[in-house]
Model the fold of this input.
Amino acid sequence: MTGSAINLVNRPILASIHTQAFQHNLNRVRELAPESKIWAVIKARAYGHCFEAALQGLASTDGFALLDIEDAAWLRERGWKGRILLLEGLFHENELSRADDLGCDLVVHCETQLAWLESFKPKTHNSFNVFLKMNTGMNRLGFKPDSYRVAFHRLHAAGYRMHHMTHFANADQIDRQPTVDGQQEIFNSTISGLDGPTSLANSAAILWHRNALGDWVRPGIMLYGASPTGIHADIEHAQLQAVMHLHSEIIDIQELKQGDRIGYGGRYEAPQDMRVGVVACGYADGYPRHAKDGAPVWVNGADQNGKGLICPIVGRVSMDMLTIDLRNAPNAKIGSVVELWGDRVPVDVVAQNSDTIGYELLCAVAPRVPVAIK
Done:
């Protein structure tokens, strides 16, 4: 995917990635966590936004955090000289030399990875920055508190520069166990007396738990303008901007009679005579097949005054198309531009209407959708 111009004679779907919105959201993180350094999390192809756009829009970050060593190599090849954190560490021992060559920081979350590092002989006198991960209650990755200090001392004795890390399970929910305060208490008591910077906060903690930030914060979804809770209203106070705008066009208009049914399975029955717009976007593009009737689509210039307005989905989303109710959109026509999600239709609202979260929709945009970096 590149930032080159899209050939407009092709199918009219486009994902526009706005690098200024990336920079705006990164600036908001700095305002919310002014004393912390920032790992900009760009795993999953920058949450579906492509690495090229992330590198442009997030270039002022203190470091990038990702999963795959090939993605770390891509960043280095494009001139990134800052820090890179491999969030799940290494998956195979034979990756150690390459990680050393690339100057990566490593998360260490299990005994196997620890043993690899103890036996590794770096090519230079520099050793890795290690973020030792503690399992404080999420029970996914990390050393339990009773084995954490031993792991720390082993890696410290082997010459590695040590950092402390944990991950919150419920920073986006109130009073759900384990709580942020409970996890933080376990973390702080376990590392008491041990040197090294800390990294605790994900997007939700940055937004709502400012006493749990640590020396390095790890914003993910908020950098892309979406909500950790999956509810757009929860992040309105943060004044984030949508980075991805998914657009298409109306490619046909059907005149339906009362009682006519729409699409596969005939899920929607026309309650009266009505116009229905057919939009060039479907589940093969990454739009959720299980979107409900009423999911919002914004149509440019569609109302009686030539202004844009929301038109709800009616009928089941198919592979390449979806259908929208044009009863309140007299000026909608073939060729009218629609926004599936972006600044007028938050991706979290589409997700709520599809029983999922914005993360999934952003990450699931299909490779066949052209991308324009702006």
In short: The radius of gyration is 24 Å. The CA atoms of residues 126 and 349 lie 48 Å apart. The chain is about 25% helix and 20% strand.
